Amino acid sequence: MPLARGLAAGVRRRGAFLPLVVLVLPLLLLLHLISSPRPRSPSAPLRGTGGEPQPACDYADGEWTRDASAGSELRYDQTCREIFKGWNCLANGKRNGRELLRWRWKPAGCELPRLDPLRFLELHKNSSIGFVGDSLNRNMFVSLVCMLKGASGEVRKWRPAGADRGFTFLRYNLTLAYHRTNLLVRYGRWSASPNGGPLESLGYKKGYRIDVDVPDQTWAEAPSFHDVLIFNTGHWWWAPSKFDPVQTPMLFFEKGRPIIPPLLPPAGLDLALKHMMIFVNKAMKPDGVKFFRTQSPRHFEGGDWNEGGSCQRDQPLSSEEVEGFFALENNGTNIEARLVNHHLMMALEKSTFKVLNITHMSEFRADAHPSTTGGKKHDDCMHWCLPGPTDTWNDLLAANLWQLRVSLTKGETFT
Ligand SMILES: *[C@@H]1O[C@H](CO)[C@@H](O)[C@H](O)[C@H]1NC(C)=O
Ligand SMILES: *[C@@H]1O[C@H](CO)[C@@H](O)[C@H](O)[C@H]1NC(C)=O
Ligand SMILES: *[C@@H]1O[C@H](CO)[C@@H](O)[C@H](O)[C@H]1NC(C)=O
Ligand SMILES: *[C@@H]1O[C@H](CO)[C@@H](O)[C@H](O)[C@H]1NC(C)=O
């Protein structure tokens, strides 16, 4: 696997191979002991025998189980200053702000370990992790910052490599940053030139120019700066209130020229993903690790966000309700979640990005949005309460980073 090879090369270069094995092997044994305490169900056969790196586990498939203890000891609370006001459900007195923390994600064939902040800081010291994407990735970034700050409060606030915000945990020299970008690619307002042009001759008067092959300035330097990147893009491609298909359509450009005939947004997304993955592959540090996060679902009921839709649930949805909300054939209000994923999967299939598949687990959590306490005129059924489900997304990130490290060590040991 090129990713592991890249990592291995990085480790060899730093001459840290032996200490890493000494450090990681006992932990690996420990992990094995923790993660397989009971017999596996027949539906989840034990893989990873015969010298494979580790028991494979699909963390993405499972269910939320009530776990009262999870809510009694908060991972962080409303005093974490990085929480954006509208997402601070505890401070804003959301009715179920605490109750929504009493659920634990239980994958079908294994356990998803809870991120241990001190261990995370130790494992990732002297490195840098960047989140690149829209406000949902900021939500995830804030969750990680707050969890780690609880373990090590000495931070320097700054903006690495053009980031919107970032922190270095001084004792560990670990940097976390958030790079804000809605579409990943550059865009700006466009209006018809009096001198005419291909778009003008088709009758376009104004819209947004979207350069599918140019990364947004906000993160163009991120791949050469960070060791780990977590990307997302999604709902902005399905945002007719901003990119109105008639009044202000998305107009796609490639190599600086308009694409003719003009593309609809889903085709524009495909092209943008293709180009951005090529860009990241070229620009990323040789031993860097790239994740793409799948789409975060919204939970508007009774109308879309601008039609009085709300999310007043006190409990996660059942599996049947989830399908009612999100199955493509139902064409519901929140349909873009699985549509976006369809496009992401096509782009990711042949790529070397790792996928953080948070969609399904999040589809259940209609109870965990700021709702009426988001401080907006309309309900916020899109972002997530903090603390909240994005803490679990970070558990998934930590588990994936750990697995990479383990498979790297094993690869070095046995090949
Ligand atoms: C994410 O996981 C769910 C549950 O296993 C699965 O149904 C879905 O196809 C996965 N999506 C992607 C984009 O991998
Ligand atoms: C961190 O990196 C610096 C510079 O590469 C190196 O001198 C130092 O030993 C590293 N510290 C740790 C704890 O790995
Ligand atoms: C801190 O970590 C960065 C990598 O993220 C490294 O370049 C730098 O040398 C480190 N600084 C120290 C003082 O170890
Ligand atoms: C889905 O619903 C939207 C609006 O609610 C409509 O414009 C679109 O045509 C529908 N698509 C299908 C395939 O039914």
From TrEMBL:
Residues 39-60 are annotated as: Disordered. GO terms for cellular component: Golgi membrane. It is a single-pass type II membrane protein. It is found in: Golgi apparatus membrane. Transmembrane segments: none annotated. Keywords: Disulfide bond, Glycoprotein, Golgi apparatus, Membrane, Signal-anchor, Transferase, Transmembrane, Transmembrane helix. This is Trichome birefringence-like N-terminal domain-containing protein. Pfam families: PC-Esterase, PMR5N. Belongs to the PC-esterase family. TBL subfamily. It comes from Zizania palustris (Northern wild rice).
